[in-house]
Amino acid sequence: MPVRQRHAVVAGAGIGGLTAALALTRQGWKVTVCERAEGPTAVGAGIVLAPNALRAFDAIGFDPAPGADPGAAVAMGVRRPGGGWLNRADPAVLAARYGRAPLALHRSALTAALAAELPEGALRYGSAVTAVDTAEGHAVVRTASGDLTADAVIAADGIHSPLRRRHFPRHPGLRHAGETAWRTVLPAAAVPAGTGAAETWGRGERFGTVPLAGGGLYAYATAVVPEGYRPADVRTELLRRFGTWHHPLPALLERIDPARVLQHDLYDLAAPLPRLHDGRTAWIGDAAHAMTPNLGQGGCQAVEDAVVLAHLLARRDVPAALAAYTRARLARTDAIRVRARRAGRIAALGHPLAVAARDLALRAVPARASLRALDDLFDGFALPGRAG
To answer: Given strand 205-211, what is the order of strands in its sheet?
Structure first.
């Protein structure tokens, strides 16, 4: 008698959800991805895939940027508004230490590449998951387009996860980080020559630039402002805040398309979830451990979650696999969430004396010590039961 193919329903077609779907498909599962949006969208900005995320993709045989120019690897560094460097890390040094240097892509390019690897019909748009009921030996997934029966459910439904709220009603939910962020992607033709990767820290304000492997530039900025703050004119606001900062930031601001600038207030989970599973449902990515972007690990941890969860589901029965997933992922992701929060507080300092002390400390840290501080992030991915 043939073995019944197990079925997973994934709620959400973001990076984490699509990675989980692809990883499970390659483990022999049937997968249905339910996405609330009516179709794929090009809206979004950039994502930096750190070495740990690239290693996770390697584990499932997925290349996020086939044929990418080796020179597209991303450097790292922090500058002052006047242009002076506080610290820097060359891509070659990062690659030598971690096996890969960070790689930046447009988010929509990454999600499109993941979706293209799924079987035809696996991705359903306009089909939000509204509830999951656990029955004997399976789960019943309620969606806008009808019910589905699944062996396992993966909640990848984002930072405001309705499934998280439904299953963990006593959890305090999200905490506003005190900042807002603007993000956009500029086409290559609009990027001044020599624009590289850097993040510039001022007083309660930051501006970052990251060249994308597929061409163009990911630009982002943050500012300490009240929750819900929305300027009437985005370009005027950004020029007021960053227009006197070092080259090429003023030129970039003159060339942005305000209609393509996204603004989102920054949040993270106020506390860790008690566990990352409930019944036959597991939470991944922002739904599981929403974190601020200060370490660039939100999407990277979603990729790690997805690959680890698929690895465990392929080797154990569902209840045992989900319990093992919580054991494997909860401590790591929560430690990174807390670390990102603390890093954000330091980067967002506004008092002149505090900023001067921060900048002095950054300049004083030896390059080797700065790299060692990244080891647990960039070297931290490993599949359970395997060496990292």
So the answer is: 85-89, 76-79, 198-201, 205-211, 217-224, 174-186, 262-269
Backbone angles phi, psi at 147, to 5 degrees: -85, 150
Q: Mind listing the domains of the chain with CATH numbers?
A: 7-65+104-174+269-348 (3.50.50.60)
Cis upstream peptide for 384 (omega within 30°)? no
pLDDT of 67 higher than 80: no
SS in 3 state form for the chain? CCCCCCEEEEECCCHHHHHHHHHHHCCCCEEEEEECCCCCCCCCCEEEECHHHHHHHHHCCCCCCCCCCHHHECCEEEECCCCCEEEEECHHHHHHHHCCCCEEEEHHHHHHHHHHCCCCCCEEECCCEEEEEEECCEEEEEECCEEEEECEEEECCCCCCHHHHHHCCCCCCEEEEEEEEEEEEECHHHCCCCCCCEEEECCCEEEEEEECCCCCEEEEEEEECCCCCCCCCHHHHHHHHHCCCCCCHHHHHHHCCHHHCEEEEEEEECCCCCCCEECCEEECCHHHHCCCHHHCCHHHHHHHHHHHHHHHHCCCCHHHHHHHHHHHHHHHHHHHHHHHHHHHHHHCCCCHHHHHHHHHHHHHCCHHHHHHCCHHHHCCCCCCCCCC
What are the backbone angles phi and psi of residue 192, rounded to the nearest 5°? -60, 145
pTM passes above 0.90: yes
325-373 confidence digits (pLDDT tens): 999 999 999 999 999 999 999 999 999 999 999 999 999 999 889 899 9
User: Alpha-carbon distance 212 to 111, whole Å?
Assistant: 15
And the tokens for 233?
Answer: 């004119």
Interatomic CA distance for residues 378 and 364, integer angstroms: 23
